[in-house]
Amino acid sequence: MRKETAALALALAVTVAARAAGAEDATAAKAAMQAGNYAEAYCIWRALAEDEHAEAQFNLGWLYHNGYGLVIDDVEAARWWELAAQQGHRDALAALGNLYQFGGRDVPRDGVRALDYFLRAARAGDEDAALVVRTLIARNDPSVRERSVELITQHTQALGAPLEVAVDRANVRKGPGTEHASGTVLGMGAPLVEVSRRGQWVQVGIVASGQTGWLRSRLVRVPMAPPGGWPSAQNRR
After folding, report:
1. 156 neighbors 191 (Cβ within 8 angstroms)
2. pLDDT above 80: residue 14
3. pLDDT class of 23 with cuts at 50, 70, 90
4. Distances (CA, A) of 13 to 19, 20, 21, 47, 223
5. What angle separates helix 127-138 from helix 111-123, to the nearest 10 degrees?
6. What's the whole-model pTM score?
7. Is the pLDDT score of 172 beyond 60?
8. Pick from 120, 121, 65: nearest CA to 91
9. What are all long-range contacts of 85-89, with beta carbons under 8 Å and residues at least 24 apart?
10. Does the pLDDT value for residue 237 go beyond 70?
11. Does position 34 have pLDDT exceeding 90, yes or no?
């Protein structure tokens, strides 16, 4: 029993020491990048990245993507970002989303794949990624066309920008103006997701159905936070 306890204590001590050393190396790598010493930063990040350090993997991908101290290599950047993303690194997820959204050197555009990464980043709490997904929904982009109902109904918290109907009866219109036909009628408190705005009109996703439409901005409001606050990023679904 004593031997097992001693072995466990030793393993814990080694782990703590390794983390401390990794933190010191990461600080040195960041300082080198800020000073423009990309070769030095690369050497530090590479060693940490090969030791499965997610932040190092992300930064190594960033160096490859931007060509700082290296030849631009988006394939290699994507490889390191993917390794970081597998550990839940939010910036790596967003970086992969942008890479596949716009394409890179020897990395073709892939809107559907980009959406997956943006959604994962949004679920991890990246507000910019959530805005990208809402914008794609608003535009009825091909990458979201077949998933818009799922995104609005099943990933409401990840999308952010919650709204609710603030009046007893609200007519949802097909476009931003009274000249557009009305369709769904919503009651007080119906949950919504804001996807875009145009003048005095707001384009919303209807959480109950996953459909989108337009309401006058005066007909909606930001709902009160639920007891205990909004779900944390880690619990968003």
Report:
1. yes
2. no
3. confident
4. 10, 11, 12, 21, 48
5. 140
6. 0.84
7. yes
8. 121
9. 85/117, 85/120, 87/52, 87/54, 87/57, 88/54, 88/124, 89/54, 89/55, 89/57, 89/58
10. no
11. yes
Q: Are 225 and 164 in contact (CB under 8 A)?
A: no
Q: Do domains 2-109 and 149-223 have the same CATH topology?
A: no
Structure confidence at residue 7 (pLDDT): 40
Classify domain 149-223 at the CATH class level: mainly beta
- For all residues of the chain together, what is the average pLDDT? 89
Compute the half-sphere exposure of residue 62: CA atoms within 13 Å on the CB side of its CA.
Answer: 20
Mean pLDDT over 101-121 rounds to 97
Which amino acid, 58? F
Parse the chain into domains and list their residue ranges. Answer: 2-109, 149-223
> Under CATH, domain 2-109 is a member of which superfamily?
Tetratricopeptide repeat domain (1.25.40.10)
**pLDDT (tens digit, 9 = 90+) per residue, 132-146?**
999 999 999 999 999
Q: Which of 79, 117, 70, 125 is nearest to 98 (CA)?
A: 117
Which region among 55-59, 215-219, 226-230 has the lowest average model confidence (pLDDT)?
Answer: 226-230
